[in-house]
Design a protein that fits this description.
- This protein has eleven helices and 16 strands.
- The chain is α+β, with helices and mostly antiparallel strands.
- The protein has three domains: about 180 residues, no CATH class; about 180 residues, Nucleotidyltransferase, domain 5 (2-Layer Sandwich), CATH 3.30.420; about 30 residues.
- Strands 8, 9, 10, 11, 12 and 13 form a six-stranded mixed β-sheet that branches. Strands 1-7-6-2 form a four-stranded antiparallel β-sheet.
- Strand 15 and strand 16 form a beta hairpin.
- The chain is globular.
Length: about 400
């Protein structure tokens, strides 16, 4: 998230509402004025970015002078280092220019004296020269904005608008994003005794395994152990196979091969966000007013490299950290063993059934779903007693029944 440099001991969370508008439905004169604003801003932003990147003070001064001459006053905040909407705070650390610098040239706060504001169910965009662009906001969008503000009350929410339109990519749409940002003190770890414990393990072969539990220091009670699965990939693979077969017979070869490649790609950013939000929502329901401690066990990038869940699982960290900052929840991102017995420290052996990977210990008789083994190690680190195993009922194969009975 771009913006001004953050204060020490302060974290920032944000939520984004994205809206698409057909260009053909916008007033022609207002849209032409918007395109001109895009062109001017992009040129000034490019000069400012590269001058900052190359430490050219003369170029920075020239860019600021051009901004005063060409950019409307309420859009110059993007070049103000003390502003909430400053766009170049991480220029020195960027390997290449961000799209937000050169391709999202329209940013300002939602305020009556600034570039955009909401009035009468519409987003009013001031374009300069007394020209305005009015974009209707659906009732659902207005309700979403109110709900998100209520979630973090009484903290103040800063609203920022991004508008982008690219002539080389989907030019028929105008993309508008309303970004809600909130700053709060960095959460401190509450007492694990009496707090709701939420453990999310993304080391699963197919998605995310969660454990919700409570402990009073002498006993740990597991409340729920849901597993969240990503969208079905089999349908995509079948569609890709049909496309490849059609291309093999020479029917629209280029088009079918391109569509087949697109079908085999697994991108589930929407599912990751929805699954993470579901975990937080479930945690607050189970907490019932208690403090919440969360840990997200994210796999090492090398361990999932090349797998179709690589981007899906690794993006969980970013989404979870943002939601934790938004709600003010204490969350960690530590990894724990799934092949070491939490009771005696012996190496666990695995038995694979149709639905479960069962980890069991020959030395002490411990067994459970492998996805839940790290949860035991997390409890030990928190200094809490271990719960009864297994956390949920497991159908044991015959060979494991003999081992456990003996």
């Amino acid at each position: 998230m771009e913006g001004r440099n953050r204060k020490r001991g302060v974290v920032e969370g944000f939520r984004v509402l994205t809206l698409l508008y057909y260009v053909s439905e916008l007033p022609a004169s207002a849209f032409q004025q918007l395109k001109e604003l895009f062109r001017v801003y992009r040129a000034v932003a490019a000069l400012y970015f590269w001058s900052k990147r190359l430490n050219l003070d003369e170029g920075v001064e020239l860019a600021l002078e051009r901004a005063k001459l060409l950019v409307p006053s309420y859009y110059r905040h993007a070049f103000d280092e003390d502003s909430q909407v400053y766009q170049f705070s991480e220029v020195e650390r960027m390997r290449r220019p961000r799209k937000v610098v050169l391709q999202l040239p329209f940013v300002d706060a939602l305020h009556y004296h600034c570039g955009c504001y909401i009035e009468g169910g519409k987003l009013v965009v001031r374009l300069g020269n007394r020209e305005r662009l009015e974009l209707p906001l659906p009732e659902r969008a207005l309700r979403w904005l109110r709900e998100k503000e209520d979630e973090v009350a009484p903290l103040k929410v800063t609203k920022i608008v991004r508008i982008q339109w690219r002539e080389d990519k989907r030019p028929e749409y105008l993309k508008v994003q309303i970004v809600l940002r909130v700053e709060r003190q960095k959460p401190v770890m509450p007492d694990p005794k009496g707090a709701l414990l939420c453990y999310a393990d993304a080391n699963s072969d197919y998605g995310i395994a969660c454990v919700f539990a409570l402990s009073n220091g002498t006993e740990t009670k597991v409340l729920e152990t849901p597993k969240l699965k990503p969208p079905n990939r089999g349908r995509r693979l079948r569609a890709a196979a049909k496309r490849q077969a059609a291309a093999a017979y020479g029917h629209k070869r280029g088009i079918n091969l391109a569509l087949a490649r697109r079908s085999t790609r697994f991108r589930a950013k929407g599912w990751v966000k929805a699954a993470t939000a579901r975990i937080f929502r479930k945690a607050f329901q189970r907490a019932n007013g208690r403090s919440v401690i969360m840990n997200f066990d994210i796999p090492d990038p090398k361990s999932v490299k090349g797998s179709y869940l690589q981007k899906t699982l690794l993006s969980l960290r970013k989404v979870a950290r943002n939601l934790a900052n938004w709600f003010g929840v204490y969350a960690t991102f530590e990894c724990y063993h799934s092949t070491v017995c939490p009771y005696c420290g012996s190496e666990l052996e695995m038995i694979y059934t149709r639905r479960t990977r069962i980890a069991y210990c020959r030395k002490c008789g411990f067994y459970d779903d492998r996805d839940y083994v790290p949860f035991y190690h997390w409890l030990k680190e928190l200094g809490l007693p271990l719960p009864k195993h297994p956390l949920q009922r497991i159908e044991l194969p015959e060979e494991l029944k003999l081992l456990t009975s003996s």
